[in-house]
């Protein structure tokens, strides 16, 4: 029998109780992860009475409860946050050998940027503009996760985000739709491979459908309201890209979209996912989101929330347990038709078949040697180096001579937790390499003092003692808040860290500032006080080694920003591909600009420096059958061999709706030796030049197009073409 026939055979044998059980996902923790006890643990954690590791252990995987009887009765279809093969196999053995039908469990986990080997946060990795890297880090994460008993990851997150007050920008690929779509496809390929039954592959789950990155004011869980053309042109494509790449599942977003919670949004699930995209995978809620429809005010009570969710097509309940406690009786009472449950079960069983759980239900416990192995650490170091963005380098201060006496200040330089960032609970911080670890290992002549941090008061005496004999100062600056529920109204540096930099500046010694953060920040003062500025994000297990590689010239940085940096928090939302207005910003008073901040951003999308310098020649455009080809000659006129991230932007000069001033439509990494020249070509398909009109027709009409091949979104060689 084929998979569809096997699904129907199993379905015909299942009781309603067993069917509902397949829709039920639980955590192995006594507190369940999403009920009232979590709130109590959270209060203790936030008050400082519980450390983060203890909190993570309680919420995610320790203190195992007695789910065995539920599994035997067929009341559980999936687990979340089981993170070791032995525990997974323990539960799986009961499901396969002791439940009536022997249907295997599927084990899901938020593997956002690594399992044991931690890679850069996705926002940082997206700055590499490297599709092969996106795929490779997902492949390694899948291999390690599978060795830990995981079959299913809740990644990639591909929510386009243009407001870094929203803490979850750390988890995505930034502000650009085109880049996010390529990132999306690469991550799905990396997690799933060509065949999900292959060893070391896991099912992907694109999230959060839809437009979660556009929450109002950058405030997590808030409302989203936008025009349909904007939705389809900007926010929808990365999800579409994942589904077309074969993504096995979709997670619905917490937010409402134009007044309808995504969890109960039949238009999103049935019209867009099922009909338009032909999606046959699993649709899962986000944590507790079904219950939260009552808070939204679109469901009268939890029964109403269950009815709306299952009928809309949300098939698995993550965290609220409402399907398990209410759905069976609602079907028996005639409040919900059983056909909705049947369709959900079909899709969940299909996922389990595709992952190969019916043939190979158990994790291979002998594969643990791959966890944090040397090969994976090497890939992590490479990924981290490729994600570092050099923002400033006055007088070519970097790379530093290895013979200099170095002073290192700032608590971030030795903080292992800061190397990992958010969504790193699967890793162990003690395995992270800090900047101080790297300097010590390489035998550099350095002195280190913590001196100051976001929560560490400034110690001027320690600073003076640390820097007195130094030729150059490396000042590390941290920003602690990023990830879910970490929204901020103010995205400036906190604590006394600016005071520390100000005092260092008075010493008239060269200052290299290294930022460790999970979102773009408003940092004009830091730019002004630093001779060189390095955006190091949260880079993962090999963070310290990667930063040292860049600082001392063992690696020439080539990463480019994938989110715009503002001068002030009040400029949000800020993004490069904004529409033009009737009064574009200019020197004239009556134009589209703020009066109290520069017109141009602090750092634009696509910006980044290296130790090489690249010169662009004249741009040549050629019509093709598919669209056009753009070609430019690039020369490395610097003294170092280096890699340039060539970016192609377009602007449609006429349309029935206002178009962005620039749109990214291609990019390519080009490595050139010092003095070497090369012609670089990028092709754009005519279909990718279209847009939606006010009646939601996709238009690919004739127009003139301005085209740039550029170093970033604010410069470049320009030409014009009619298509």
From TrEMBL:
SUPFAM superfamilies: (Trans)glycosidases (SSF51445), Beta-D-glucan exohydrolase, C-terminal domain (SSF52279). The keyword Hydrolase applies. Transmembrane segments: none annotated. It comes from the Bacteria. Gene3D superfamilies: Glycoside hydrolase family 3 C-terminal domain, Glycoside hydrolase, family 3, N-terminal domain, Immunoglobulins. Keywords: Glycosidase, Hydrolase, Signal. InterPro entries: Cellulose_Degrad_GH3, Fn3-like, GH, Glyco_hydro_3_C, Glyco_hydro_3_C_sf, Glyco_hydro_3_N, Glyco_hydro_3_N_sf, Ig-like_fold. SMART domains: Fn3_like. The keyword Transferase does not apply. It catalyses: Hydrolysis of terminal, non-reducing beta-D-glucosyl residues with release of beta-D-glucose. Belongs to the glycosyl hydrolase 3 family. This is beta-glucosidase. The lineage of its organism: Bacteria, Bacillati, Bacillota, Clostridia, Eubacteriales.
């Amino acid at each position: 029998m084929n998979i569809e026939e096997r699904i129907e055979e199993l379905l015909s044998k299942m009781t309603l109780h067993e069917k509902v059980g397949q829709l039920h996902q639980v955590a192995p923790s006594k507190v369940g992860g999403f009920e009232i006890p979590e709130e109590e643990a959270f209060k203790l954690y936030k008050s400082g009475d519980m450390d983060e590791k203890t909190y993570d252990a309680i919420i995610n995987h320790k203190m195992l409860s007695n789910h065995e009887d539920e599994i035997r009765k067929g009341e559980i279809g999936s687990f979340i946050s089981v993170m070791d093969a032995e525990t997974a196999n323990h539960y799986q053995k009961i499901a396969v050998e002791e439940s009536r039908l022997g249907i295997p469990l599927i084990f899901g986990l938020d593997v956002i940027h690594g399992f044991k080997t931690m890679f850069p946060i996705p926002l940082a990795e997206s700055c590499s503009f490297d599709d092969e890297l996106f795929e490779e880090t997902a492949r390694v994460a899948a291999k390690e996760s599978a060795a830990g008993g995981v079959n299913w990851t809740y990644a990639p997150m591909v929510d386009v985000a243009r407001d870094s007050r929203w803490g979850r920008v750390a988890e995505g690929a930034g502000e650009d739709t085109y880049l996010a779509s390529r990132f999306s496809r690469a991550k799905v390929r990396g997690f799933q491979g060509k065949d999900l039954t292959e060893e070391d592959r896991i099912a992907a789950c694109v999230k959060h459908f839809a437009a979660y990155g556009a929450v109002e004011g950058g405030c997590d869980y808030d409302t989203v309201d936008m025009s349909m053309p904007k939705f389809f042109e900007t926010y929808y494509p990365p999800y579409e890209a994942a589904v077309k790449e074969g993504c096995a599942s979709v997670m619905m977003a917490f937010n409402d979209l134009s007044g309808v919670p995504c969890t109960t949004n039949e238009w999103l699930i049935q019209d867009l996912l099922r009909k338009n995209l032909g999606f046959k995978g699993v649709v899962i809620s986000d944590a507790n989101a079904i219950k939260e429809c009552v808070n939204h005010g679109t469901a009268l009570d939890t029964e109403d929330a269950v009815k709306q969710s299952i009928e809309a097509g949300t098939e698995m309940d993550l965290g609220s347990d409402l399907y398990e406690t209410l759905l069976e009786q609602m079907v028996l009472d005639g409040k919900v038709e059983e056909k909705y449950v049947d369709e959900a079960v079909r899709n969940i069983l299909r996922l389990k078949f595709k992952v190969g759980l019916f043939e190979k239900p158990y994790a291979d416990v002998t594969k643990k040697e791959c966890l944090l192995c040397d090969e994976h650490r090497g890939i992590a170091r490479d990924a981290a180096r490729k994600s570092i963005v050099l923002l400033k380098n006055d007088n070519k201060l970097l790379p530093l001579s290895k013979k200099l006496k170095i002073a290192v200040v700032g608590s971030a330089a030795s903080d292992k937790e800061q190397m990992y960032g958010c969504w790193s609970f699967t890793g162990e911080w003690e395995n992270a390499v800090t900047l101080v670890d790297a300097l010590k290992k390489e035998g550099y002549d350095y002195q280190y003092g913590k001196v100051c941090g976001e929560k560490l008061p400034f110690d001027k005496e320690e600073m003076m003692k640390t820097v007195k004999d130094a030729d150059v100062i490396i000042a590390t600056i941290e920003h602690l808040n990023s990830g879910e529920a970490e929204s901020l109204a103010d995205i400036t540096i906190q604590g006394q860290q600016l005071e520390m930099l100000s005092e260092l500046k008075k010493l008239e010694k060269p200052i290299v500032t290294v930022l460790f953060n999970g979102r773009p920040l408003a940092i004009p003062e830091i730019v002004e006080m630093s001779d060189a500025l390095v955006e190091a994000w949260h880079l993962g297990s090999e963070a310290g080694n990667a930063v040292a590689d860049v600082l001392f010239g063992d690696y020439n940085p080539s990463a480019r920003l994938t989110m715009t940096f503002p001068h002030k928090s009040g400029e949000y939302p800020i993004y490069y591909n904004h529409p033009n207005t009737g009064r574009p910003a200019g020197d004239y008073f009556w134009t589209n600009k703020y009066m109290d901040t520069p017109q141009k951003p602090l750092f634009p999308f696509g910006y980044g420096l290296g130790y090489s310098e690249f010169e662009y020649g004249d741009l040549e455009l050629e019509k093709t059958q598919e669209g056009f080809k753009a070609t430019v000659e690039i020369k490395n006129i610097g003294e170092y061999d280096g890699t340039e991230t060539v970016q192609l932007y377009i602007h449609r000069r006429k349309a029935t709706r206002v178009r962005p001033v620039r749109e990214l439509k291609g990019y390519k990494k080009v490595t050139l030796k010092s003095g070497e020249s090369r012609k670089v070509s990028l092709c754009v398909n005519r279909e990718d030049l279209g847009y939606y009109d006010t009646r939601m027709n996709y238009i690919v009409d004739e127009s003139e197009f301005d085209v740039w091949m550029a170093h970033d979104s604010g410069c470049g060689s320009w030409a014009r073409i009619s298509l």
